[in-house]
Amino acid sequence: MPVLDRQDDVFVLDLGDGENRFHPDWLASVNAALDEVEKAEGPRALVTAATGKFYSNGLDLDWLFAHADQHQEYVVGVHELFARTLSLPLVTVAALQGHTFAAGAMFSLAHDFRVMRADRGYWCLPEADINIPFTPGMSALIQSRLTPRTAHEAMVTARRFGGDDALAAGLVDHSVAEDAVRRTAVELARAQAGKAGPTLGTIKARMYAPALDALRNGDNPLG
To answer: Disulfide check for 185: which of 1, 93, 202, 203 has CB 3.0–4.6 Å away?
Structure first.
């Protein structure tokens, strides 16, 4: 399960050492960590990271298929995590040391910056290959964070981007060696920790208002 640590002005949320899928208990743990980060005072920033082969493989499809009656409620919860991360009143950096797929990739896009391992691991939106359409909120998030050309390629072709290709496409901000992923993310976060506060939250809320509205549409989240 996710574990929150603090390194001076930088909170580091380790998402886990498995596939880090969005099981309801996992979502609750992440939200509890974000509560702690938001309640803190003074300069602060957030890095999300993971340990092992995966950053996150996204939705917990096994749980979802076993609880089909909770499908809409589950998607609302996932959307809220995206919206919350996108609008946090502090700088956020995703440290992508491993595979970052589907909703895991979308979660990374909700961060302000992304650092990816250069030599191994893929960033991918596989929905076109696995026959699961993007929800309106997911589409809005992706298209708010990527150029039209990159969003089109990533969403329509389900291309798997390695670190250097992801950097060239603007999916990530840095492509570095494995042992530098988390360190680089923490350094980026620390440099921006002084910006935390209501003003930054307002800037993000206004910048991403259409995407946030789509993600927070609890009446019809599936479209």
So the answer is: 93
- What whole-number distance in Å separates Cα of residue 166 and Cα of residue 104? 15
- Give the tokens for residue 64: 């979802």
The tokens for 153 are 């390629």
pTM: predicted TM-score of the whole model, two decimal places? 0.97
Nearest to 137 by CA among 145, 149, 148: 145
SS3 call for 114? strand
How many CA atoms lie within 13 Å of 2's alpha carbon, on the beta-carbon side? 25
Tell me the mean pLDDT in the region 95-112: 98
- 8 Å CB contact between 198 and 60: no
Question: Exposed, middle or buried, 104 (CB in 10 Å: 0-12/13-18/19+)?
Answer: buried
**CB count, 10 Å around CB of 103?**
24
Q: Rounded to whole angstroms, how far apart are CA atoms 159 and 154? A: 6
